[in-house]
Write a structure and sequence with these properties.
- By secondary structure, this protein is mainly β.
- It has a single domain, classed as BH3618-like, CATH 2.30.290.
- Helices cover 9% and strands 38% of the residues.
- It has 2 helices and 11 strands, in the order ββββββαβββββα.
- A 7-stranded mixed barrel has the order 3-4-5-6-7-9-10. A two-stranded antiparallel sheet has the order 1-2.
- Strand 4 and strand 5 form a beta hairpin.
- The longest helix has 7 residues.
- It starts with a strand and ends with a helix.
- The relative contact order is 0.19.
- It is found in: Cytoplasm.
- Acts as an anti-CsrA protein, binds CsrA and prevents it from repressing translation of its target genes, one of which is flagellin. Binds to flagellin and participates in the assembly of the flagellum.
- Interacts with translational regulator CsrA and flagellin(s).
Length: 146
């Protein structure tokens, strides 16, 4: 199937590539279907592209790339909603935000995806994690991508 995006133009995706977020994402509650796209210029960054809105694509990264001991403790309701049988099934991503000076990573509300079932949710961690973890001293490729 083809989808049109403002960032990537028209792209071909398979139905199996679509991720379903039952509650959407914080601030994007009406966006329930997403596709995860690789960044052609930087393997550390991916883009979560909304299927409902061509102009919404969020840069995402693995939080462990920047915080090696980062862990997410899921509530039992989140585990049930994601249909997780083991923690190995959970793929965790953080949304990157940018202002004029810095890039930040949201560690407080990561995206948790069950890749086997193609379902995800954005969880608010019970642990005290920052919403804006500054990503300092980044390679220029990452800054350009995000």
């Amino acid at each position: 199937m083809k989808i049109h995006t403002t960032r990537f133009s028209t792209i071909e995706i398979e139905p199996d590539d679509i991720l379903f977020f039952r509650n959407g994402l914080i601030g994007f509650e009406d966006c329930r279907h997403w596709v995860l796209l690789a960044d052609a210029g930087n393997s550390a960054v991916a883009w979560l592209q909304s299927m409902q809105h061509a102009d919404i694509a969020l840069p995402v990264v693995s939080p462990r790339r920047f915080v090696s001991d980062y862990q997410v403790r899921l509530e039992p309701t989140d585990v049930e909603a994601l249909q997780l049988n083991s923690v190995e099934q959970a793929y965790v991503l953080g949304v990157v935000s940018r202002d004029e000076q810095t890039l930040t990573l949201n560690l407080r509300a990561p995206l948790v995806i069950n890749l086997d079932r193609r379902i995800g949710c954005q969880v608010v961690t019970v642990d005290p994690q920052p919403m804006q973890y500054e990503l300092a001293n980044l390679p220029s490729e990452l800054r350009k991508s995000a």
